[in-house]
Amino acid sequence: MHSRGFYERLKAIRANANIPESREAEMCVLETVQELISQPTDSRRPGMLLGKIQSGKTRSFLGIIAAAFDEGFDVAIVLTKGTRTLAKQTVNRISKEYASFRDNEELAVYDIMSIPELTAWEIEDQKLVIVAKKETNNLRRLIKLFGETHPSLAAKRVLIIDDEADFASIRFTRSKDKTGLEQGRIADQIDELRRELTNPAVLQVTATPYSLYLQPDEYDAAPGANFTFEPKRPAFTKLVPIHSMYVGGEQYFGEYDERDPQFYLWNEVTDDELSALKKEDRRRVKTAQALTADKIKGLRHGLVTFVTAAAIRRLQQRAANERPRRYSMIIHVETARRAHAWQHMVAGEILDALNTAIKERDQNFELLIDAALDDLDRSVSAGGFRMPDRQDIVDEVRRAFLKGAVVTEKVNSDNDVEALLDENAELRLRTPYNVFIGGQILDRGITVPGLIAFYYGRSPKRMQQDTVLQHARMYGTRPPSDLAVTRFYTTAHNFNALRSIHEFDAALRYAFETGAHDRGVAFVVRDSGNRIIPCAPGKILASDIVALRPGGALLPFGFQTGARTAMARLVGKVEKLITSGAISSGKPEKVTTEVAIEIINIVEQCFDFESGYGFDWEACRAAIEYFSRIASPPESRGYCWIFAETGRTLSRQRTEGRYSDAPHTYQDRAKVKTAIGGLPVLALFKQEGRLEDGWRDAPFWWPVLFAPANAAPSIFASTIRDDDGAGEDDDS
After folding, report:
1. In the chain, at which end, N or C, are there fewer CB atoms within 10 A of the end residue's CB?
2. Mapping DSSP to helix (H, G, I), strand (E, B) and coil, where does residue 292 land?
């Protein structure tokens, strides 16, 4: 007879380890298990546990397994992403958390590739947890275990946990005759496993549910239909609670100013630098110029700032009588192994040159550490933390380099990774300062502890939101004091694409949290016929999407205006369309949809965007039309609010060099909120465009579109990929 109380004892174990279960996390676990019991789930209509990247999904599903065992489940199958490393990490994590149950002869944990011939005692008197990679041989053995070797297992109550469920579990490929789509082999095998089981329950776990929750129905919208896309939904969805120290997309891509440490997270890298790091080219990157070459300025600053940041944190920890922690940096630019070797060489040359500069008292080291300290001082101060004495920081950094405490490792194959894993199957931090250079193996699942610097350079020709979001290894648990020294290095193009993906992800999560998904998440596209039609989300790539949450803002930035003469003519055209009562009155007025779109058409001609920046004007027009003509209350359709303010003198660039991206103040937003209801608000802010502010001495109107407060979260795309588009990350 099995003991009960698995979950209660697991909570006690976690509390004793000083990581107690929150009330929200406990409710998520218990409610999920009740849902699994109360309604049938299978691979066609599973339960879903939706979390964020590095937000504690594994901890949650381990709690769910324990609680499920309390409710009569006997076997848990955990399907992992198809790498040996992640499978090992999963087995080790489960074995560690369930160690007391195993020692008490209540439970056993096995990898399917090394499971022994089970005895009747093991099958009848123990709970079983079996881990299998989503790989053909693993799944074949799993099917054989239940179908042939131990058929008595198939009759037991089995819970299938499909971890990283959007990886391999849902995949469709073009059929050989090119006439249609067929399901991938792994998905077929998972279905075959389910059919072997008498009474299975299926829980999919992911942070990127687009291919799961938003599987498109095949249909053609009839003219005049309600253009809200109704996705196929799992049997139920539970959200993994976000704890107070989680750092994710909201911190990296939310609205912050110089008073917030989050504002300083991003450091821009040039496209030219990424190009220089993709393949060996000694004409562009010379060993003798490791500390001075502009081609690798961002990487060099990143490496020095990382070591300086870790030194600051270690000094702060010693001052607080805490044990100093070890820290890590990831350099993730390319998937090709040759590229990793080149990046490893360049990083090594920078570190060697810094070592030499320290020994020789070279001024280059002083200049580089001064730049790093200036960078970090702003965010540490904004976070309300005390900077250690400058000389103490410099001395700590010097010691780090002179004693070889700054180490680099290539991470680009399973064999490499396994050699680098610690007893928790996490990347081992050998020294206080660890730099990992790698490719796809770092994308998903592998935990990199102490991560405070991420140099990201993947620039696929086409970005698919779920694939790219999994690159975001900078997300995870981080105390505010670590966040204050954390940095993210990438190009403006990549940063803006990731911000779009974050908005997509946030819009979808908002729909779950508020129940808006019961009305559907709106996916729309503007076609050549100038109509709004629904677009299946499977056809939308990250580079094509604009997401708007209720009350969210959509605006251009990173631009310069046209010449003075042309601008005067265009500004005059805009002002003829704005009703006089809306200008500088603090009160919005209604205009027709056509007028709002015509204003956008004129303003579009005013801006020239810098490299890496841009604005989807078509998606903006689609949003106005959708919110005005379709999603608005019937009595208000065909109208849009206009809100116009003059006399603004916003600088083109902020003091630290980043382009200004908020022409509206907090007071403006408060005024707009009074009008936001069922209609969109097109807010216009007339900038003086002065030379001293970085403009071309030409006034211009800066538009901001606000979505209605009561709208469903909406995804707009000006284009869609064709049916042949695989949607995979393309690094060629």
Report:
1. N
2. coil
Q: Which among 627, 640, 730, 630 has a CA at the least distance from the CA of 682?
A: 640
d(CA 709, CA 692): 37
Cβ contact 68:74 at 8 Å: no
Interatomic CA distance for residues 335 and 443, integer angstroms:
10
Taking residues 387-414, report their average pLDDT: 90
Note the pLDDT of residue 729. Answer: 35
Give the chain's mean pLDDT.
83
- Return the closest-CA partner of residue 421 out of 456, 454, 445: 445
**Which of 187-201, 299-313, 432-446, 507-521 has the largest mean confidence?**
299-313
Q: How far is CA 427 from CA 326, 338, 419, 423, in A?
A: 12, 22, 9, 9
Residue 594 burial (10 A CB sphere; 0-12, 13-18, 19+): middle
Highest mean pLDDT among 204-208, 537-541, 683-687: 683-687
Closest to 674 (Cα-Cα) out of 643, 636, 629, 631: 643
- The CA–CA distances, whole Å, from 5 to 71, 129, 214, 277, 281 equal 10, 17, 36, 54, 62
Dihedral sign (CA 374, 375, 378, 379): negative
Q: Answer whether 89's CB lies under 8 Å from 425's CB.
A: yes
SS3 560: strand
3-class SS string, 324-342: CCCEEEEEECCCCHHHHHH
**Angle (nearest 5°) at CA 452 between 463 and 423:** 95
pLDDT reported for residue 290: 85
* Overall residue count recorded for the chain in this entry: 732
Distances (CA, A) of 554 to 392, 547, 616: 45, 9, 10
Nearest CA among 499, 550, 556, 481 for reference residue 521: 550
pLDDT tens per residue across span 46-92 = 888 988 877 888 899 999 999 999 999 999 999 987 667 777 778 88
| pLDDT tens per residue across span 160-182 | 999 887 654 444 344 454 444 33
Residue with tokens 């204050």: 484
Sign for the CA dihedral angle at 586, 556, 499, 661 comes to: negative
Cβ distance 349 to 276 under 8 Å?
no
DSSP E strand stretches across 245-342: 246-247, 266-268, 327-332
Q: Please report the pLDDT score of residue 169 as a whole number.
A: 46
As a whole number of angstroms, the distance between CA 437 and CA 330 comes to 6
Strands 451-456 and 487-490: parallel
Contact 204, 165 (CB under 8 A): yes
Residue type, 120: A
Do residues 469 and 505 make contact, with C-beta atoms less than 8 angstroms apart?
A: yes
Q: Which two tokens stand for residue 191?
A: 């279905």
- How confident is the model at residue 522, as a pLDDT? 62
Three-state DSSP state, 85:
helix
| Cα separation, 509 vs 526, whole angstroms | 24
10 Å CB burial of residue 724 (0-12, 13-18, 19+) is: exposed
Residue in 633, 643, 668, 663 with CA at minimum distance from that of residue 651: 663
- pLDDT > 90: percent of the chain: 47
In terms of average pLDDT, the best of 217-231, 398-412, 516-530, 701-715 is 398-412
The β-bridge partners of 130 are 77, 110
CA–CA gap between residue 443 and residue 722 (Å, rounded): 26
- Report whether 43 contacts 264 (CB < 8 A): no
Report pLDDT digits (tens) over 269-299: 998 988 888 888 787 888 888 888 888 899 9
Question: What average pLDDT does range 395-415 have in this prediction?
Answer: 86
168: left (phi over 0), alpha (psi -120 to 50) or beta: left
